[in-house]
Design brief:
mainly alpha, 4 helices, 87% helix, 0% strand
Length: 103
């Protein structure tokens, strides 16, 4: 097992323990871990479960979906920033070429 896999498994186990400590089935925690996908997102969900102690499954699922939406928005923002940086570099390179031709 790689270090990354160990980190993922530990985050999953903490989430499952937090969910089961509230009386929910372990399967719910497992499914949430699969949906959240990353240890950081699972830690965020675990923190929510421990501190808020939601009373309904709907509250748990709503928070999980909100975390997933935040992660997706962050990925989209990073992809947009990278695309913009490539576009700017291309414009800069074209200007440099045109300036060299004028001289």
């Amino acid at each position: 097992m790689t270090e990354q896999q160990k980190t993922w498994a530990q985050a999953r186990d903490r989430l499952v323990r937090a969910v089961t400590s509230l009386g929910y089935p372990a399967e719910l925690g497992e499914l949430m871990a699969q949906q959240l996908k990353s240890p950081k997102a699972m830690e965020r969900m675990t923190s929510y479960v421990v501190h808020v102690r939601p009373h309904t499954t709907e509250m748990l699922v709503d928070e999980m979906l909100a975390i997933c939406a935040d992660v997706d928005a962050w990925h989209e923002k990073k992809a947009s920033q990278e695309a913009q940086a490539r576009y700017n570099a291309r414009l800069f390179n074209q200007r440099g070429i045109y300036e060299d031709e004028d001289e």
